[in-house]
Amino acid sequence: MDTYSALVERLQHRLQQRDHTPLYVKFSDALQQAVQNGDLREGDFLPSEREFCRLLGISRITVRNALKLLESRNVVVRTRGYGTYINFQMEYQIGSAASFSCQVTGKGKNPGTMWLEKKVVPCNEEVAEQLALPPDTPVYCLLRHRFIEDEPVSIVTSYVPTTLIGDPEEIGVSLYAYFKAQNISPQHTRNWVTAKASDEHFISVMNIKASVPMLVLKQQVCDRAGVPIEFSINHCRADRYVFVSEQ
Protein backbone atom coordinates (compact mmCIF):
# COMPACT_ATOMS: atom_id res chain seq x y z
CA MET A 1 0.00 0.00 0.00
CA ASP A 2 1.25 3.49 -0.85
CA THR A 3 2.77 5.30 2.14
CA TYR A 4 0.43 8.23 1.57
CA SER A 5 -2.73 6.30 0.64
CA ALA A 6 -4.78 7.39 3.68
CA LEU A 7 -3.78 11.04 3.20
CA VAL A 8 -4.48 10.90 -0.54
CA GLU A 9 -7.91 9.38 0.11
CA ARG A 10 -8.77 12.17 2.55
CA LEU A 11 -7.59 14.85 0.13
CA GLN A 12 -9.42 13.33 -2.83
CA HIS A 13 -12.65 13.12 -0.84
CA ARG A 14 -12.48 16.83 0.03
CA LEU A 15 -11.38 17.93 -3.44
CA GLN A 16 -14.32 16.10 -5.04
CA GLN A 17 -16.93 17.79 -2.86
CA ARG A 18 -19.02 20.26 -4.83
CA ASP A 19 -18.93 23.73 -3.31
CA HIS A 20 -17.47 27.14 -4.07
CA THR A 21 -14.34 26.70 -1.94
CA PRO A 22 -11.12 27.11 -3.99
CA LEU A 23 -9.26 23.84 -4.57
CA TYR A 24 -6.13 24.97 -2.76
CA VAL A 25 -8.19 25.84 0.35
CA LYS A 26 -9.92 22.44 0.24
CA PHE A 27 -6.50 20.82 0.01
CA SER A 28 -5.02 22.81 2.90
CA ASP A 29 -8.06 22.37 5.16
CA ALA A 30 -8.15 18.60 4.58
CA LEU A 31 -4.44 18.23 5.29
CA GLN A 32 -4.70 20.35 8.44
CA GLN A 33 -7.60 18.17 9.59
CA ALA A 34 -5.40 15.11 9.09
CA VAL A 35 -2.85 16.69 11.44
CA GLN A 36 -5.48 17.53 14.05
CA ASN A 37 -6.86 13.98 13.88
CA GLY A 38 -3.41 12.51 14.43
CA ASP A 39 -3.18 10.94 10.97
CA LEU A 40 -0.10 13.10 10.40
CA ARG A 41 2.34 13.81 13.20
CA GLU A 42 5.16 16.21 13.97
CA GLY A 43 8.11 15.54 11.71
CA ASP A 44 6.19 13.52 9.10
CA PHE A 45 7.32 14.41 5.58
CA LEU A 46 4.81 15.14 2.84
CA PRO A 47 5.04 14.15 -0.82
CA SER A 48 6.74 16.64 -3.12
CA GLU A 49 4.67 19.10 -5.13
CA ARG A 50 5.18 16.96 -8.22
CA GLU A 51 4.12 13.80 -6.37
CA PHE A 52 0.98 15.49 -5.03
CA CYS A 53 0.10 16.48 -8.60
CA ARG A 54 0.51 12.89 -9.76
CA LEU A 55 -1.45 11.39 -6.86
CA LEU A 56 -4.33 13.86 -6.93
CA GLY A 57 -4.51 14.88 -10.57
CA ILE A 58 -4.39 18.60 -9.77
CA SER A 59 -2.17 21.42 -10.98
CA ARG A 60 1.13 22.31 -9.39
CA ILE A 61 -0.03 25.86 -8.70
CA THR A 62 -2.93 24.44 -6.64
CA VAL A 63 -0.52 22.33 -4.59
CA ARG A 64 1.91 25.21 -4.19
CA ASN A 65 -0.78 27.64 -3.02
CA ALA A 66 -2.13 25.06 -0.56
CA LEU A 67 1.32 24.46 0.93
CA LYS A 68 1.94 28.21 1.16
CA LEU A 69 -1.32 28.57 3.08
CA LEU A 70 -0.37 25.72 5.42
CA GLU A 71 3.05 27.30 5.92
CA SER A 72 1.43 30.64 6.81
CA ARG A 73 -0.61 28.78 9.46
CA ASN A 74 2.61 27.12 10.68
CA VAL A 75 1.10 23.69 10.08
CA VAL A 76 4.03 22.72 7.86
CA VAL A 77 7.66 23.73 7.47
CA ARG A 78 9.01 24.03 3.92
CA THR A 79 12.76 23.85 3.33
CA ARG A 80 14.63 24.05 0.06
CA GLY A 81 16.35 20.77 -0.75
CA TYR A 82 14.98 19.07 2.38
CA GLY A 83 11.25 18.84 1.81
CA THR A 84 8.01 19.75 3.57
CA TYR A 85 7.20 18.30 6.97
CA ILE A 86 4.58 18.65 9.70
CA ASN A 87 5.29 21.28 12.33
CA PHE A 88 4.79 20.78 16.07
CA GLN A 89 1.32 21.35 17.55
CA MET A 90 0.41 20.76 21.18
CA GLU A 91 -2.65 18.57 21.80
CA TYR A 92 -4.00 20.17 24.96
CA GLN A 93 -6.56 18.15 26.91
CA ILE A 94 -9.04 20.79 28.06
CA GLY A 95 -11.25 18.23 29.77
CA SER A 96 -8.40 17.24 32.07
CA ALA A 97 -7.24 18.91 35.26
CA ALA A 98 -3.63 18.02 34.38
CA SER A 99 -1.35 21.05 34.32
CA PHE A 100 0.17 22.60 31.22
CA SER A 101 3.62 21.50 32.40
CA CYS A 102 2.53 17.88 32.85
CA GLN A 103 0.86 17.76 29.46
CA VAL A 104 3.87 19.27 27.69
CA THR A 105 6.28 16.94 29.50
CA GLY A 106 4.04 14.04 28.50
CA LYS A 107 4.65 14.96 24.87
CA GLY A 108 8.40 14.74 25.41
CA LYS A 109 8.85 18.52 25.35
CA ASN A 110 10.21 20.99 27.89
CA PRO A 111 7.73 23.52 29.34
CA GLY A 112 8.69 26.97 30.54
CA THR A 113 7.09 29.90 32.36
CA MET A 114 8.02 33.57 32.58
CA TRP A 115 6.13 35.27 35.39
CA LEU A 116 5.11 38.87 34.75
CA GLU A 117 2.77 39.64 37.65
CA LYS A 118 1.71 38.07 40.93
CA LYS A 119 -0.53 40.62 42.59
CA VAL A 120 -3.80 41.00 44.47
CA VAL A 121 -6.65 42.73 42.62
CA PRO A 122 -10.40 43.18 43.20
CA CYS A 123 -12.22 40.64 41.03
CA ASN A 124 -14.57 41.85 38.31
CA GLU A 125 -18.02 40.36 37.74
CA GLU A 126 -16.83 37.57 35.41
CA VAL A 127 -14.07 36.43 37.76
CA ALA A 128 -16.37 36.73 40.78
CA GLU A 129 -18.98 34.53 39.10
CA GLN A 130 -16.45 31.87 38.09
CA LEU A 131 -14.85 31.75 41.54
CA ALA A 132 -18.21 31.96 43.38
CA LEU A 133 -17.12 35.12 45.20
CA PRO A 134 -18.77 38.52 45.74
CA PRO A 135 -17.67 41.16 43.20
CA ASP A 136 -14.59 43.17 44.22
CA THR A 137 -13.34 40.39 46.50
CA PRO A 138 -9.51 40.45 46.53
CA VAL A 139 -8.00 37.62 44.46
CA TYR A 140 -4.54 36.82 43.19
CA CYS A 141 -3.96 37.78 39.56
CA LEU A 142 -1.15 35.65 38.12
CA LEU A 143 0.10 36.71 34.68
CA ARG A 144 2.70 34.70 32.77
CA HIS A 145 3.98 33.70 29.37
CA ARG A 146 4.21 29.99 28.62
CA PHE A 147 6.84 28.32 26.49
CA ILE A 148 7.46 24.97 24.82
CA GLU A 149 11.15 24.34 24.10
CA ASP A 150 11.86 28.06 24.70
CA GLU A 151 9.27 29.09 22.10
CA PRO A 152 6.44 31.34 23.38
CA VAL A 153 3.04 29.68 22.89
CA SER A 154 0.53 31.44 25.15
CA ILE A 155 -0.24 34.29 27.53
CA VAL A 156 -2.12 33.18 30.63
CA THR A 157 -3.87 35.12 33.38
CA SER A 158 -5.08 33.09 36.36
CA TYR A 159 -7.31 34.33 39.15
CA VAL A 160 -7.06 32.44 42.45
CA PRO A 161 -8.73 33.12 45.83
CA THR A 162 -6.23 34.68 48.23
CA THR A 163 -7.01 31.98 50.80
CA LEU A 164 -5.29 29.40 48.57
CA ILE A 165 -1.94 31.15 48.19
CA GLY A 166 0.39 31.96 51.06
CA ASP A 167 3.52 33.36 49.43
CA PRO A 168 3.07 33.81 45.64
CA GLU A 169 6.85 33.86 45.20
CA GLU A 170 6.85 30.15 46.05
CA ILE A 171 4.98 29.43 42.80
CA GLY A 172 7.48 28.09 40.27
CA VAL A 173 6.99 26.90 36.70
CA SER A 174 3.65 25.25 37.52
CA LEU A 175 0.77 26.71 39.53
CA TYR A 176 -0.62 23.19 39.89
CA ALA A 177 2.66 21.97 41.39
CA TYR A 178 2.21 24.69 44.01
CA PHE A 179 -1.38 23.56 44.58
CA LYS A 180 -0.18 19.99 45.07
CA ALA A 181 2.35 21.13 47.67
CA GLN A 182 -0.52 22.83 49.52
CA ASN A 183 -2.68 19.66 49.33
CA ILE A 184 -5.05 21.34 46.88
CA SER A 185 -6.27 18.96 44.17
CA PRO A 186 -7.62 20.34 40.87
CA GLN A 187 -10.23 17.83 39.69
CA HIS A 188 -12.87 19.26 37.37
CA THR A 189 -12.83 21.85 34.61
CA ARG A 190 -15.34 23.85 32.59
CA ASN A 191 -14.03 25.30 29.35
CA TRP A 192 -15.02 27.93 26.81
CA VAL A 193 -13.02 28.30 23.58
CA THR A 194 -13.26 31.05 20.97
CA ALA A 195 -11.08 32.07 18.04
CA LYS A 196 -10.17 35.63 17.12
CA ALA A 197 -7.63 37.60 15.13
CA SER A 198 -4.34 38.16 16.94
CA ASP A 199 -3.81 41.71 18.19
CA GLU A 200 -0.53 43.62 17.93
CA HIS A 201 0.53 42.81 21.49
CA PHE A 202 -0.01 39.07 21.05
CA ILE A 203 1.78 39.07 17.68
CA SER A 204 4.76 40.87 19.22
CA VAL A 205 5.04 38.69 22.33
CA MET A 206 4.55 35.42 20.44
CA ASN A 207 6.77 36.55 17.54
CA ILE A 208 4.28 35.28 14.96
CA LYS A 209 2.85 36.42 11.65
CA ALA A 210 -0.31 38.52 11.72
CA SER A 211 -2.10 35.77 9.78
CA VAL A 212 -1.86 33.36 12.73
CA PRO A 213 -5.09 33.57 14.76
CA MET A 214 -5.46 33.42 18.52
CA LEU A 215 -7.43 30.82 20.47
CA VAL A 216 -8.92 32.10 23.72
CA LEU A 217 -9.53 29.42 26.34
CA LYS A 218 -11.40 30.40 29.49
CA GLN A 219 -11.18 27.68 32.11
CA GLN A 220 -12.80 27.22 35.51
CA VAL A 221 -11.06 24.65 37.72
CA CYS A 222 -12.67 23.12 40.81
CA ASP A 223 -11.41 20.87 43.61
CA ARG A 224 -12.83 17.49 44.66
CA ALA A 225 -15.71 19.19 46.48
CA GLY A 226 -16.63 21.21 43.40
CA VAL A 227 -15.33 24.48 44.87
CA PRO A 228 -13.71 26.79 42.28
CA ILE A 229 -9.99 27.25 42.89
CA GLU A 230 -8.91 28.95 39.67
CA PHE A 231 -10.33 30.87 36.72
CA SER A 232 -7.90 31.39 33.87
CA ILE A 233 -7.94 33.23 30.55
CA ASN A 234 -5.48 31.69 28.10
CA HIS A 235 -4.51 33.41 24.85
CA CYS A 236 -2.96 30.66 22.74
CA ARG A 237 -1.27 30.44 19.36
CA ALA A 238 -3.63 28.63 16.98
CA ASP A 239 -0.63 27.23 15.10
CA ARG A 240 0.70 25.52 18.23
CA TYR A 241 -2.43 24.38 20.09
CA VAL A 242 -5.03 21.77 19.26
CA PHE A 243 -7.67 21.57 21.99
CA VAL A 244 -8.97 18.07 22.70
CA SER A 245 -11.95 17.23 24.90
CA GLU A 246 -12.56 13.60 25.85
CA GLN A 247 -15.50 12.87 28.11
UniProtKB/TrEMBL annotation:
Pfam families in UniProt: GntR (PF00392), UTRA (PF07702)
GO molecular function, one term: DNA binding
Keywords associated with the record: DNA-binding, Transcription, Transcription regulation
Record has Transport as a keyword: no
Alphabetized Gene3D superfamilies for the sequence: Chorismate lyase-like, Winged helix-like DNA-binding domain superfamily/Winged helix DNA-binding domain
Matching PANTHER family: MANNOSYL-D-GLYCERATE TRANSPORT/METABOLISM SYSTEM REPRESSOR MNGR-RELATED, MANNOSYL-D-GLYCERATE TRANSPORT_METABOLISM SYSTEM REPRESSOR MNGR-RELATED
Protein name: DNA-binding transcriptional regulator, GntR family
Top-level taxon of the source organism: Bacteria
UniProt domain HTH gntR-type: residue ranges: 21-89
Keyword DNA-binding (UniProt): yes
One Gene Ontology biological process: negative regulation of DNA-templated transcription
